[in-house]
Write a structure and sequence with these properties.
Elements: H1 2-9, E1 18-21, H2 28-40, E2 44-46, H3 60-67, E3 72-75, H4 77-86, E4 103-106, H5 113-122, E5 127-129, E6 141-142, E7 159-160, E8 166-169, E9 182-187, H6 202-209, E10 216-225, E11 231-236, E12 240-243, E13 246-249, H7 250-257, E14 263-273, E15 277-286, H8 294-308, E16 317-320, H9 334-341, H10 355-371
Parallel strand pairs: 1-2, 1-3, 3-4, 4-5, 15-16
Antiparallel strand pairs: 6-7, 8-9, 9-10, 10-11, 12-13, 14-15
Helix pairs in contact: 1-2
Length: 373
């Protein structure tokens, strides 16, 4: 029921339309919106095996859209960042007729404003960030194109969908003020389509999701609500770092770093610091063709963060890397990176897309830990 409702009212897909969800079929987005969702409403679904770049080039997505007359494309922000890195001018897009495309949806990780602005400037269709989790089964926050398109705000998945009572709470469980980042929780009861328990483990379901805040499902994500009721999801709550008593969002720092014209994507993690508790360190992937001395880049990034966030961030370290380790759904493995950099024991998640990327990152992580002042 929830999937069928979302197809018509969120994605605006009806019988006869073509929807392409460029995802891993084993991930919740894959089996829900590659298989079940489109077929429930009589739409055509596209199954695709391959990456957005290198198969054979950064025009792979646009070729599929043109050849199969795709109406709605749903993919992860990390795929868009990969395309942007390889083809920043979108010259490959110009080779294909994608005029039939009606909308582009993104989920899996936050669609950062820089990537949103880039793809919005290249495609003449609504680019919709929407936020949900494997546990919720469908979008918690979205822009309901099938009902009425709301104004799109860069960095926001728009507003809660019917059935989801979204609240922002501080660490003590009190409602956070408008514009103040806090814990994103969902009120009870959850709507149809969401998880009801964990397989043969009711107690873990309660302790993992319902114990942190009274009568609320803890999403594990942090964010804030603006004056118009739009939700801004900034990252996981364990990506909030404490720098000399100041609670800072690594997502907010990443957003600033992403504005640098040479940066394709980045990950910011908080490393243990004897003096200040934690300090932010950025791992940056440059756009293809970007030529910039690493020390010059570090200086410019430090200045950006200082200007946009302030000296309290104590941001001083940035390392250029070839790639960032991700899950198959596009989430960057920040926790694993932080454990490696802090010299802690870690387990490589089974959901990792390419273990070789994590191995290649080790030299960049270890010097930061050993040589940091």
């Amino acid at each position: 029921m929830a999937l069928a409702w979302s197809m018509a009212n969120i994605y605006g897909v009806k019988a006869g339309d073509v929807m392409w969800t460029a995802s891993d079929v084993g991930w919740v987005v894959g089996h829900s919106y590659i298989v079940y969702g489109p077929l429930l409403v009589g739409a055509t679904t596209v199954l695709y095996e391959g990456k957005p770049v290198g198969t054979p080039d950064a025009g792979a997505f646009w070729r599929v859209v043109a050849e199969h007359k795709v109406d709605v494309l749903f993919t992860a922000p990390t795929a868009l960042r990969a395309i942007r890195k390889a083809d920043p001018e979108a010259s490959e897009l110009a080779k294909y007729d994608v005029s039939g495309l009606k909308a582009l949806f993104a989920a899996g990780e936050r669609l950062d404003p820089e990537t949103f602005d880039w793809i919005s400037g290249k495609l003449p269709v609504p680019v919709v960030d929407h936020w949900w989790q494997t546990e919720t089964g469908w979008a918690v926050c979205a822009n309901p194109l099938g009902l009425e398109q709301l104004p799109i705000k860069s960095g926001s998945p728009t507003v809660p969908m019917p059935g989801f009572a979204v609240e922002i709470l501080d660490a003590d469980g009190r409602p956070a003020d408008t514009g103040v980042e806090g814990n994103i929780v969902l009120g009870y009861p959850l709507p149809p389509g969401t998880l009801q328990t964990l397989w043969r483990d009711d107690e873990r379901y309660i302790s993992s999701y319902w114990s942190a805040f009274e009568d609320c499902y803890a999403t594990g994500d942090s964010g804030y609500r603006d004056d118009d009721g739009y939700i801004f999801v900034m990252g996981r709550t364990d990506d909030i770092i404490n720098v000399a008593g100041h609670r800072l969002s690594t997502g907010a720092i990443e957003q600033v770093i992403g504005r640098h014209p040479a940066v394709a994507e980045c990950a910011v993690i908080g490393l243990a610091d004897q003096l200040k508790g934690q300090r932010p360190v950025a791992y940056v992937v440059l756009k293809t063709g970007a030529e910039l001395d690493e020390e010059q880049l570090r200086t410019e990034l430090v200045a950006l963060v200082r200007q946009q966030i302030g000296p309290v961030a104590d941001f001083k370290t940035a390392a250029v890397v070839d790639g960032l380790p991700k899950t198959r759904s596009g989430k960057i493995l920040r926790k694993t990176m932080r454990q490696m950099a802090d010299g802690e024991e870690y387990v490589v998640p089974s959901t990792i897309e390419d273990p070789a990327v994590l191995e290649a990152l080790k030299p960049a992580l270890q010097p930061v830990r050993k040589d940091a002042p």
